[in-house]
């Protein structure tokens, strides 16, 4: 007989204190983002593969190496979502959100999927908090977006946070720079890693991300896109920086910052935590003014970010979570009294109380132990002599009318 089936490699189960801690993270994100006018959105777990090939970029690692794609049985290729921005943009187009007041602002707390080597805080199924603001190219959108992620990380206690920020300019400027960078890389090809050499034509900007020593030496003197920005893009970037300064957000300008997705334009940023070591990224994003047009919509500006829930929880102190309060545990001395116990439990829940009833056939002694482990405030005990109500804090116990139990648990004995 084969052994027990285990969760697939790169996935994990969430339960107990970890589940409660994740709820606390989600609640903090909801409170902060919805106060800023962001509405919750959930998109399907899988989308047409073409959405990511066109939106994320056919030359990216995500599309080339990391997507879980499958045939839907009708000859259509589907992909488990590897990121959240393209699906939100697809939803924006599909539901005619351009008719709403702009920008349309959404946030999500969702699972995503990438076929990559699992490591601490990085899994093949992972969770992200994300925020997208679509429909405005105002620099204030960029600044607010960055500020919100900064506030979220601070509120969750993420340690040793650093913000790096840069600009990729408009597509035309980026295309000119791309050609210049390709010429530079070809001229120094001998010092580059094999992987970087293979990307010169498809994705030369990713050379800045390489950890290969020779490549890093070559890239130290590579031309910088930030030095080639058009006047309009430079003005946009300077406005974003000015607003961040006004809000007291500390940042460092990084001329080598390159996000791993093709859709970014102008502002790009990344938050990292030195508490995480080499793999220090916690969250980041940027502006994607051409993405909606790439997936079939009208030209529409957008700005957003995503932060890894697992990474946040690694970089933050343990969340102080407590098990939900239990108002009433209902026990019974013998099986024939179980129906009455079950009815009282149902009545308590209908009245808005948290209540549990014995479900494992324990002895009365075992039931009282279970009530203590569950943290019950009161225990109602159905027995031969009537119904006893025990105050678990004071230890006081007395007989009461079963119909009056709910009155008494709202008023101390």
Describe the structure.
With 413 residues, this protein is an alpha+beta fold. It contains 14 helices and 16 strands. The chain has an eight-stranded mixed sheet with strand order 1-5-6-11-10-9-7-8, sandwiched between helices. A five-stranded mixed sheet has the order 13-12-14-15-16, with helices on both faces. α1 packs antiparallel against α5 (139-155) and α5 runs parallel beside α9. The radius of gyration is 28 Å and the shape is elongated.
Largest sheet: 8 strands, mixed
Radius of gyration: 28 Å
How many strands in all?
16
As laid out across the biggest beta sheet, the strand order is 1-5-6-11-10-9-7-8
Please state the structural category. Answer: alpha+beta
Which parts are unreliable, with pLDDT below 50 for 5 consecutive residues or more? none
What would you say about this model in short?
The protein has helices spanning 16-35, 49-57, 61-66, 85-94, 139-155, 171-187, 194-198, 213-219, 231-246, 291-294, 309-315, 338-350, 364-373, 405-409, and strands spanning 39-40, 46-48, 69-71, 77-80, 104-113, 125-134, 161-167, 252-253, 265-273, 281-287, 302-308, 326-332, 355-357, 376-383, 386-391, 397-400. The protein is an alpha+beta fold.
Fold topology:
Layout: H1 16-35, E1 39-40, E2 46-48, H2 49-57, H3 61-66, E3 69-71, E4 77-80, H4 85-94, E5 104-113, E6 125-134, H5 139-155, E7 161-167, H6 171-187, H7 194-198, H8 213-219, H9 231-246, E8 252-253, E9 265-273, E10 281-287, H10 291-294, E11 302-308, H11 309-315, E12 326-332, H12 338-350, E13 355-357, H13 364-373, E14 376-383, E15 386-391, E16 397-400, H14 405-409
Helix pairs in contact: 1-5, 5-9
């Amino acid at each position: 007989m084969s052994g027990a089936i285990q969760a697939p490699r790169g996935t994990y189960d969430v339960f107990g204190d970890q589940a409660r801690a994740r709820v606390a993270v989600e609640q903090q994100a909801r409170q902060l983002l919805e106060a800023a006018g962001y509405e919750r959105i959930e998109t399907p777990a899988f989308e047409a593969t073409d959405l990511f090939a066109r939106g994320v970029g056919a030359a990216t690692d995500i599309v080339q190496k990391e997507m879980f794609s499958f045939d839907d049985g009708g000859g259509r290729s589907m992909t488990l979502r590897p990121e959240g921005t393209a699906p939100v943009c697809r939803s924006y187009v599909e539901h005619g959100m351009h008719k709403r007041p702009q920008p349309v602002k959404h946030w999500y707390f969702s699972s995503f999927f990438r076929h990559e080597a699992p490591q601490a805080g990085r899994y093949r199924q992972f969770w992200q908090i994300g925020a997208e603001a679509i429909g405005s190219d105002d620099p204030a959108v960029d600044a607010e977006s960055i500020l919100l992620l900064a506030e979220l990380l601070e509120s969750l206690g993420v340690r040793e946070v650093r913000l790096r920020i840069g600009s990729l300019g408009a597509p035309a400027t980026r295309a000119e720079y791309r050609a210049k960078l390709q010429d530079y890389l070809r001229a120094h090809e001998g010092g580059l890693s094999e992987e970087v050499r293979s990307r010169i034509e498809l994705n030369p900007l990713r050379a800045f991300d390489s950890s290969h020593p020779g490549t890093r030496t070559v890239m130290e003197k590579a031309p910088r896109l930030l030095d080639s920005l058009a006047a309009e893009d430079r003005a946009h970037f300077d406005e974003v920086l000015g607003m961040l300064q006004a809000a007291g957000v500390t940042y460092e300008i990084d001329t080598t910052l390159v996000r791993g997705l093709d859709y970014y334009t102008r502002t790009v940023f990344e938050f990292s935590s030195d508490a995480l070591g080499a793999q220090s990224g916690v969250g980041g994003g940027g502006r994607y003014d051409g993405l909606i047009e790439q997936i079939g919509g009208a030209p529409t500006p957008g700005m957003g970010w995503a932060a890894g829930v697992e990474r946040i929880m690694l970089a933050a102190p343990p969340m102080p979570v407590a098990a939900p309060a239990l108002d009433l545990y209902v026990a019974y001395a013998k099986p024939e009294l179980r129906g009455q116990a079950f009815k009282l439990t149902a009545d308590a829940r209908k009245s808005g109380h948290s209540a549990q009833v014995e479900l494992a056939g324990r002895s009365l002694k075992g039931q009282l132990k279970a009530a203590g482990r569950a943290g019950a405030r009161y225990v109602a005990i159905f027995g031969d002599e009537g119904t006893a109500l025990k105050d678990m804090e004071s230890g006081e116990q007395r007989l009461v009318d079963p119909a009056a139990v709910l009155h008494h648990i709202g008023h101390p004995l």
